[in-house]
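FORM 7B: Structural annotation worksheet

SECTION A. Query
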Amino acid sequence: MRNFDFSPLYRSAIGFDRMANLLDSLSRTEQNQPSYPPYNIELTGEDKYRITMAVAGFDQSELNIEVNQNNLTVSANKTGDEQQRTYLHQGIAARSFERRFQLADHVQVQSAHYENGLLHIDLQRIIPESMKPRSIPIGIQTAEKLTVVPNENTAAINDQVSAA
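SECTION B. Predicted structure
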């Protein structure tokens, strides 16, 4: 894995230090991040996403999905019946795990379902109406509706125009 030096970003980008810290921490944790269980993140529609995790060997009752602020945590605790088995070859990893996903602002978990050893978590970005861009109509003001309130400046301009 490559290591990137983000120190030039700290020197030249004022106010973006939080972003640089996130990038720096991502490059460090990616090396230590376990690859179990494998997962996909796909775009299923406009502002709709799906996380699919391969959790073969786990029962639906052993899986736990939790959302806390902008963190999605998927975990599984394997029950103790695996200790009674004697394997000649164990290629299916059925160990307990915890996987965390950082969700963007306004992304909400819509549903989750377990099918054929795959856990599907559907997400959607729902932007509140107050944050959506809105169009402001531009009105046309006609001369009939235009009213001018005279003050001392308009009186002085009228005197200059009549003298010329």
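SECTION C. Observations
The first helix runs from residue 7 to 12. The CA atoms of residues 9 and 38 lie 32 Å apart.

SECTION D. Sign-off
Analyst initials: ____
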